[in-house]
């Protein structure tokens, strides 16, 4: 299938191109962006998408999430992290079956498509069911078989099976997901990292989200601070570290020596859990690659990456008392090309360039919340919402056009998710 986006305002996020280009055409052939220029005439059979009054930009990339946790949306209010996990989430998760993971993931993927997020990095259990939902909806998914110090050999075998099964898939990729240092002992960590090196995969791991985790790592690994573990074991292992709320200035400087390490910042979840605010500006000043995540909806509420961009910028300006921090275009990088780099997918996605995969979105800027158009980048970061996204395209396939997703029975997915949460809360018969 060929697609031509006509007369659009292009924000390509590509090095060597202007930051904004007006009246541009983008021609997609099958799943590849084939040509970017003005005045392309559509060939017979080409689907034409009118881009006048709209921005075409890379699809947003969410580098830390737990997609099946959509069913736990707004279960957190009134709990701290440990209370929420022990009293709410873990007892409910014990009741989940594969079908629940499938429908919870499916709901998240619908939310992604509607909000202009085309790629997501997931960490959860029973990943085959999330993958099934991703393949059916068409989104791009990076996932894992979560590893920690329990059933280690079984989990590694399952992860290896995933790697082999999806190694040639266009939209599914795998990483080595280590839950965290505080849930993994040192011997098992070494085993997981040897596996990652052998498979030539990067690591995705929670890191320094709250004070208790920091203290647990220090005690378990007998170190002065958690970054000592990173310096000892991750020197040559590409890794995405999610959260990093509790890193000190010195720890940030130390971790910046390793260009293989990137940070996934999840500001909404960190605020809602009362963890604090990560020192993102300090990380940027130290040339660390920062991308953005939402975490699971249980703590992050939703998957709207526009909201995540806005929180990211405002929080850093506020805590540093410096309005010059976080220029809007740099924040757009966090949600696009930086996310692609973190997932080791920058050769495929993250920017609109000839030869890359066609993962892009069309955003309507001819709406009341985007007028007047004084600064397009600031407007997107501070004023645009997921509802401004009109069209979402992944790997050359139109998943949503004019806000409509025609190939999914959304009502069925909503109803199934309502049944799941009622069942695991014992509010209706188990057989329902």
Record the SSE blueprint.
Layout: E1 2-10, E2 21-29, E3 32-37, E4 47-50, E5 54-58, E6 60-65, H1 81-93, H2 98-115, E7 117-122, H3 127-137, E8 140-143, H4 152-166, E9 172-174, E10 176-180, H5 186-199, E11 203-207, H6 211-221, H7 227-233, E12 239-243, H8 249-255, E13 261-265, H9 267-272, H10 280-285, E14 289-292, H11 297-300, H12 305-319, H13 328-335, H14 337-342, E15 360-364, H15 376-382, E16 389-394, E17 397-400, H16 410-424
Parallel strand pairs: 1-4, 1-5, 6-7, 7-8, 8-9, 10-11, 11-12, 12-13, 13-14
Antiparallel strand pairs: 1-2, 2-3, 5-15, 15-16, 16-17
Helix pairs in contact: 2-3, 2-16, 12-13, 13-15
Structural class: alpha/beta
Please give the number of β-strands.
Answer: 17
CATH fold topology of the domain at 60-342: TIM Barrel
Fourth-level CATH superfamily of the domain at 60-342 = Metal-dependent hydrolases
How widely separated are the two ends?
A: 42 Å
CATH class (first level) name of the domain at 60-342 = Alpha Beta
Global shape: globular
Please, how many helices?
16
Fraction of residues in β-strands: 15-25%
Question: What fraction, in percent, of the residue positions are helical?
Answer: 25-40%
Instruction: Report Rg.
Output: 21 Å
- CATH architectural category of the domain at 60-342: Alpha-Beta Barrel
Query: pLDDT below 50 for ≥5 consecutive residues: which ranges?
Result: 428-432
Mean pLDDT: 96
Largest sheet: 8 strands, mixed
């Amino acid at each position: 299938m060929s697609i031509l986006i006509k007369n659009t305002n292009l924000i390509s996020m590509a090095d060597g191109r202007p930051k904004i280009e007006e009246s541009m055409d983008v021609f997609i052939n099958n799943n590849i962006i084939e040509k970017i220029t003005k005045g392309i005439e559509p060939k017979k059979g080409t689907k034409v998408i009118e881009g006048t009054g709209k921005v075409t930009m890379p699809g947003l990339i969410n580098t830390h999430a737990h997609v099946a946790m959509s069913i736990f949306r707004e279960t957190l209010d009134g709990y701290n992290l440990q209370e929420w996990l022990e009293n709410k989430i873990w007892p409910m998760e014990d009741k989940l079956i594969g079908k629940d993971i499938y429908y919870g993931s499916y709901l998240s993927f619908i939310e992604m498509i509607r909000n202009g997020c085309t790629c997501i990095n997931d960490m959860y259990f029973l990943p085959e069911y999330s993958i099934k939902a991703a393949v059916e909806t068409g989104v791009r998914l990076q996932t894992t078989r979560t590893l920690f110090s329990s059933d280690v050999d079984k989990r590694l075998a399952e992860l290896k099976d995933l790697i082999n099964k999806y190694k040639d898939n266009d939209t599914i990729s795998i990483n080595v997901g280590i839950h965290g240092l505080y849930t993994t002992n040192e011997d098992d960590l070494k085993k997981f990292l040897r596996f990652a090196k052998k498979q030539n995969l990067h690591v995705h791991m929670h890191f320094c989200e709250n004070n208790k985790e920091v203290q647990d790592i220090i005690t378990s690994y007998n170190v002065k601070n958690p970054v000592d573990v990173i310096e000892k074991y991750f020197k040559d292992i590409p890794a995405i570290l999610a959260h990093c709320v509790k890193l000190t200035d010195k720890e940030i400087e130390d971790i910046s020596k390793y260009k293989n390490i990137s940070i996934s910042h999840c500001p909404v979840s960190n605020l809602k859990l009362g963890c604090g605010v990560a020192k993102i500006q300090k990380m940027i000043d130290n040339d660390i690659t920062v991308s953005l995540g939402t975490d699971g909806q249980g703590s992050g509420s939703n998957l709207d990456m526009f909201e995540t961009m806005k929180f990211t910028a405002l929080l850093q300006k506020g805590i540093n008392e410096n309005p010059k921090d976080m220029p809007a275009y740099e924040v757009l990088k966090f949600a696009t090309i930086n996310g692609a780099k973190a997932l080791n997918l920058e050769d495929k996605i993250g920017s609109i360039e000839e030869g890359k995969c066609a993962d892009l979105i069309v955003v309507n800027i001819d709406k009341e919340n985007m007028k007047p158009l004084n600064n397009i980048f600031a407007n997107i970061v501070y004023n645009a919402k997921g509802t401004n996204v009109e069209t979402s395209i992944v790997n050359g396939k139109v998943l949503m056009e004019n806000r409509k997703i025609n190939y999914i029975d959304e009502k069925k997915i909503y109803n199934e998710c309502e049944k799941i949460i009622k069942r695991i809360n014992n509010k209706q018969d188990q057989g329902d």
